[in-house]
Amino acid sequence: MYQLRFDTPNAWVQCVLEHFEDFLLDHAACERKAGSTAEHFAVRYRDKPELIDTMLEIAKEEIEHFHDVCRLLWERGRDLGPDEPDPYINPLMEEAHSSGDRRLLDRLLIGSISEYRGCERFALLSRALDDGGADSELVAFYEDLAADDSRHRQQYYNLARLYFEESRIEARLDTWLDCEAEVVRQLEIRPALH
Ligand SMILES: [Fe+2]
Ligand SMILES: [Fe+2]
Known about the structure:
With 194 residues, this protein is mostly helical. It has one domain (15-186): Ferritin, CATH 1.20.1260. Helices cover 77% and strands 0% of the residues. The radius of gyration is 17 Å and the shape is globular. Bound molecules: fe (ii) ion (2 copies). One fe (ii) ion (FE2) binds at residues 34, 62, 115, 118, 148-149, 152.
């Protein structure tokens, strides 16, 4: 399995801990978008049953995550916020091919890498919450999200391997890993998943 090329700085975790409710607003939006993305794949590629099967599984899990984060917000007396432009996924999508099977390969790889980033950040957050003496249910929730995103990363990647040759995947993955690392390096530190 490949590796991400930029580690999330500690300042991000500190910022999220300090403004946790604001973080939850963005987190909810990210789970909702992850669900719609998976659903969109399932609707678009009708001739690929393995892809549809996997994407519907992922979509169900993401919607459940969304619901869980909604509950965390409601427990804190907060409502869902409006959707904001996404400074992480939008620049990646702008670089992606927009047609043909190159589009599918790009979107599967972006899917895998963004799930990997979710996994990295939820694991960091879970550890920091634990160190800070947070509620054990909340610590376990973020630990579970990290595990789910690790699985999603693999599922997106497996689909790429099902439909594309290894050499083609390697070449494109190399580009996307550099691109993602650069996007994350330039992200403003704020209480948001990205
Ligand atoms: Fe999720
Ligand atoms: Fe996920």
